[in-house]
Design a protein that fits this description.
The complex is a heterodimer. By secondary structure, chain A is mostly helical. Chain A has one domain: ABC transporter involved in vitamin B12 uptake, BtuC. Helices cover 68% and strands 0% of the residues of chain A. Chain A has 16 helices and no strands. In chain A, helix 4 runs antiparallel to helix 13. Chain A is globular. Chain B starts with a strand and ends with a helix. Chain B is 39% helix and 26% strand. The longest helix of chain B has 16 residues. By secondary structure, chain B is α/β, with parallel strands linked by helices. In chain B, helix 3 packs parallel to helix 6. Chain B has a 6-stranded mixed β-sheet, with helices on both faces. In chain B, strands 2-1-4-5 form a 4-stranded antiparallel β-sheet, covered by helices on one side. Chain B folds into 2 domains: 159 residues, P-loop containing nucleotide triphosphate hydrolases (Rossmann fold, 3-Layer(aba) Sandwich), CATH 3.40.50; 65 residues, no CATH class. The chains are: A mainly alpha, B alpha/beta. Chains A and B meet through helix 9, helix 10, helix 15 and helix 16 of A and helix 2, helix 3, helix 6 and helix 7 of B. Chain B: Keywords: Amino-acid transport, ATP-binding, Nucleotide-binding, Transport. Chain B: Belongs to the ABC transporter superfamily. Chain B: This is Branched-chain amino acid transport system ATP-binding protein. Chain B: InterPro entries: AAA+_ATPase, ABC_branched_ATPase_LivF/BraG, ABC_transporter-like_ATP-bd, ABC_transporter-like_CS, BCAA_Transport_ATP-bd_LivF, P-loop_NTPase.
Chain lengths: 397, 237
């Protein structure tokens, strides 16, 4: 090992240790959970009072360029941050499918690719199609990928567990191979000069040039916040309850009258739309799309972001996305070992924190907060009292 | 007219035949029980009734209407609700959230609140533990929760799949008492059981299921005193 690699390794271990420690503070098990408890004890207004400055810091990070976190001189820091935010958005979308509805999707990169190609086809001069302004491709990409999600989901969501994972894995590959084989999608040659949002800098250059990460980062953060609000509302709605039920016990959910197939399809379509959205952001920033970026390892990285952050926890998966994208840029000496590192990290995580950095909340439903308050007023008790003691003994016998 | 009628129903898992041409009738306000050994096809029959398993042939009528092809969730709306085998509560949800899932198909807030009170009356233990997470409860409590959750759909017929499974004798007694109580309040019950003694003494009518076919039927009392049933299921020789 060279000294660069050793320094990177040490720094990375420090960073990961800090993250795990923060995760532990949020843990909601009986004894711990100081930070989580403190957070839940605040009213909505107080929570926002804390959130607003926090969000401000997050938004301004590429401008602040903090010393330990910076990836320069290796990689431009704002661009790194854009990539982190992009992965966070992808993880947020995949979390709807994997974390909330419990459907294992190994081909999520397929939706990401479709989104990227929509942006390329409708804005790049290399494409034969008529052009539209770049920002319009974002909603268009969502609609198109949603359609793909429904097309893929309709026959496959009747499958369960492993079978679904295999089919989605196939879907991701099909999209990549189509991009390679279909002449209008231009395979390896790809599309140059994909569009970007309007706006000029003081010096007359484009605000959203692909060398200028900060505006792209801020745009992505803005989109993440909107998606976060929408997904949060869904999570607390009837739809969210149905997803949790399906994830916990699909048969029981069906017996309770949940139209399981319909809600799985919704999860798939919404997840797909967010994947498409991130794909078109990616295409815009890189300003070039070809068939190289949409392979299986990328899909696995997306899934790793969700699992690492905490499947089912929105904030957790955002963190997971950030970390997964950030590590190869920051620890460049170790970048070629990135899959080894993620593999080891996942194994270690599954041993010590199987729920991810920030695990899913125990009580995910509409009254979660109130239920939690009641619990604090009267702590959880296990069945050791009165009339059912005999029955307990009988159960263990 | 019978409330629930299975006519010549067969169910296959792939090429394996689990249930072969059985016919069962459940009249309004009855408790009907289906007894049989492991692998006789009891749970498969229940899953066919609630629409989780498709039939390979035969018909299911509910309230005179053919529901053979009806989706499972729409059967709940019609009034068929099941407490699954092995309890099947949602482990990460609290008691209240589990009960709310039971009322998933309903919009009438008043009716839901009234049914919640009814469930808490039947199972005071659930009222005490309304904020406890399902997965952390004891087996007996989970069974109560599964039954309570099924009642939250305000069913016309309640399907109970082995409610006594894995419970201590003292608690089995209590569960069966509550089943009788639920029936007295006007809910029809179709009960699948291995505990033939309890099931037969509580049921109005009963069917014996053996390797996918019905070998005997009659009132609970008749089967309780039937020599072959005694020998095979009651442990009396």
């Amino acid at each position: 090992m060279t000294s660069d690699e050793i320094i990177d390794l040490v720094e990375m271990v420090v960073l990961v240790a800090v993250l795990v420690a923060v995760g532990k503070l949020f843990q909601r098990s009986k004894a711990s959970g100081r930070l989580g408890e403190w957070w839940n004890s605040k009213s909505r207004v107080e929570q926002w009072a804390w959130l607003v400055p926090l969000i401000a810091v997050v938004v301004l990070i590429p401008v602040i360029n903090p010393p330990f976190l910076t990836t320069e001189p290796g990689t431009n820091f704002p661009i790194t941050m854009f990539n982190c935010a992009l992965y966070a958005l992808v993880a947020l979308g995949l979390n709807v499918v994997v974390g909330q509805a419990g459907l294992l999707d190994l081909g999520y990169v397929g939706f990401f690719a479709v989104g990227a190609y929509v942006a390329a086809l409708f804005t790049s001069p290399d494409s034969q199609l008529s052009k539209i302004p770049y920002l319009w491709t974002l909603p268009l990409a969502m609609v198109v990928t949603m359609f793909f999600g429904v097309v893929l989901g309709t026959p496959t969501l009747r499958l369960r567990g492993d079978y679904l994972a295999i089919v989605t894995l196939g879907f991701g590959e099909i999209v990549r191979l189509l991009a390679t084989l279909m002449p209008p999608l231009k395979g390896n040659v790809g599309f140059q000069d994909v569009g970007h949002p309007p706006g000029t800098k003081a010096d007359g250059g484009a605000l959203f040039a692909n060398t200028n990460g900060t505006p792209w980062y801020m745009l992505t953060i803005g989109i993440i916040l909107i998606v976060l609000l929408l997904v949060g509302n869904l999570e607390r709605s009837r739809v969210g309850r149905a997803w949790v039920a399906i994830r916990e016990d699909e048969d029981a959910a069906e017996m309770m009258g949940v139209p399981v197939f319909k809600f799985k399809l919704w999860a798939f379509a919404i997840g797909a739309a967010i994947g498409g959205l991130s794909g078109s952001l990616f295409a815009g920033q890189v300003s070039f799309v070809n068939n190289q970026k949409f392979d299986v390892p990328t899909s696995v990285l997306f899934l790793a972001a969700v699992v690492l952050g905490g499947s089912g926890n929105k904030v957790g998966v955002l963190l997971g996305g950030f970390v997964i994208a950030y590590i190869p840029f920051r620890f460049t000496a170790l970048a070629s070992y990135k899959y080894l590192i993620f593999g080891v990290a996942l194994v270690v995580l599954m041993i010590f924190r199987p729920q991810g950095l920030l695990g899913a909340r125990q009580r995910l439903l509409a009254r979660g907060r109130q239920a939690y308050q009641r619990l604090i007023g009267r702590p959880e008790q296990l069945s050791s009292d009165s009339s059912l003691v005999a029955e307990k003994a009988g159960d263990s016998a | 007219m019978a409330l629930l009628e299975l006519i010549d129903v067969s169910v296959h898992y792939g090429s394996i035949r689990a249930v072969h041409g059985i016919s069962i009738t459940v009249e309004e306000a009855e408790i009907v029980t289906l007894i049989g050994a492991n692998g006789a096809g009891k749970s498969t029959t229940m899953r066919a009734v609630s629409g989780i398993r498709p039939l390979s042939s035969g018909k299911i009528l509910f309230d005179g209407q053919d529901i053979t092809k009806l989706r499972a969730d729409l059967r709940v709306v019609r009034g068929i609700s099941q407490a699954p085998e092995g309890r099947g509560v949602f482990p990460g949800m609290t008691v209240m959230e589990n009960l709310d899932m039971g009322a998933f198909t309903r919009k009438d807030k008043k009716g839901i609140a009234a049914d919640r009170d009814r469930v808490f009356d039947l199972f005071p233990r659930l009222a005490e533990r309304r904020t406890q997470v399902g997965g952390t409860m004891s087996g007996g409590e989970q069974q109560m929760l599964a039954i309570g959750r099924a009642l939250m759909a305000n069913p016309r017929v309640l399907l109970l799949d082995e409610p006594s499974m894995g419970l201590a004798p003292q608690f089995i007694q209590q569960i069966f008492k509550i089943i009788t109580e639920i029936n007295k309040q006007g809910t029809t019950v179709l009960l699948v059981e291995q505990n033939a003694q309890q099931a037969l003494s509580r049921a109005h009518r009963a069917y014996v299921l053996e390797t996918g076919t019905i070998t005997r039927e009659g009132t609970g009392k008749e089967l309780l005193s039937d020599e072959s049933v005694k020998a095979a299921y009651l442990g009396v020789t």
